[in-house]
Design brief:
The complex is a heterodimer of chains A (131) and B (68). Chain A is α+β, with helices and mostly antiparallel strands and 131 residues long. Chain A is 29% helix and 37% strand. In chain A, strand 8 and strand 9 form a beta hairpin. The longest helix of chain A has 23 residues. In chain B, 22% of the residues lie in helices and 47% in strands. Classes of the chains: A alpha+beta (131), B alpha+beta (68). At the A-B interface, strand 1, helix 2 and strand 9 of A face strand 1 and helix 1 of B. Strand 9 of chain A pairs antiparallel with strand 1 of chain B.
Chain lengths: 131, 68
């Protein structure tokens, strides 16, 4: 069945400029169009508004990120025909969190650099140093 | 002495934070400041201090609060 669905996020009150960078980083990893200029997520039979809309390789329909007035963040879209719907949300949240970690370190006077880990535990390591 | 922070975000969403090279209470203070800045960006961590100490090194780990 094809429909527009909402997927809860553990993030709240996000910074959209940082989120755009997180989405662009996913584009480098998965390929595809990345951020789109539209603010509407279209599904097979319906559509909905979102703050940021994007599509990567393997996705039939674009996905969106929407933030409510209370700061709740949710991913919206029609996952029908997409191979990597859940992966996309996971990677965006991971990249956003890592970027925020790097920003926080820099604000505290650390030099920060990040590296993707694809070992037993997969993720992103951000390392900061301050003398 | 060089102060170091290692901030690891796993694909499953868990965050691990290691701080080393800090003296005294500066480790906990730095972790708190980092946590406060992350909160400004909507990243919420549940700070759980571990009591491990190796001379001048403290390790603090944080785990994500999954908000669903």
């Amino acid at each position: 069945m094809s429909l527009i669905a909402r997927y809860a996020s553990r993030l709240t009150s996000i910074n959209f400029e940082v989120m755009k960078k997180a989405i662009e980083a996913v584009k480098e990893e998965l390929g595809g169009e990345g951020l789109l200029s539209v603010k509407t997520v279209r599904g097979y039979s319906s559509s909905t508004k979102a703050n940021l809309v994007f599509r990567f390789e393997g996705m039939r329909f674009a996905m969106g990120i929407r933030q409510t007035k209370s700061g709740k963040v949710e991913f919206v879209g029609d996952s029908w025909g997409s191979e990597n719907w859940e992966l996309v949300q996971t990677l965006i949240e991971r990249n956003y969190t890592a970027l925020c970690g790097a920003i926080a370190m820099k604000r505290l006077g650390f030099t920060a650099q990040s590296q993707v880990y694809q070992d037993t535990v997969k993720g992103i390591m951000v390392e900061g140093m301050r003398t | 002495m060089t102060e170091k922070i290692r901030f690891f975000v796993s694909d499953s969403g868990e965050v691990a934070l290691d701080l080393s090279g800090f003296k005294g209470d500066t480790c906990a203070t730095c972790a708190k400041k980092l946590n406060d800045i992350l909160a400004e960006y909507g990243v919420h961590l549940d700070l759980e201090e571990m009591t491990e100490k190796e001379e001048e090194t403290e390790i603090v780990r944080q785990k994500n609060v999954i908000q669903k």
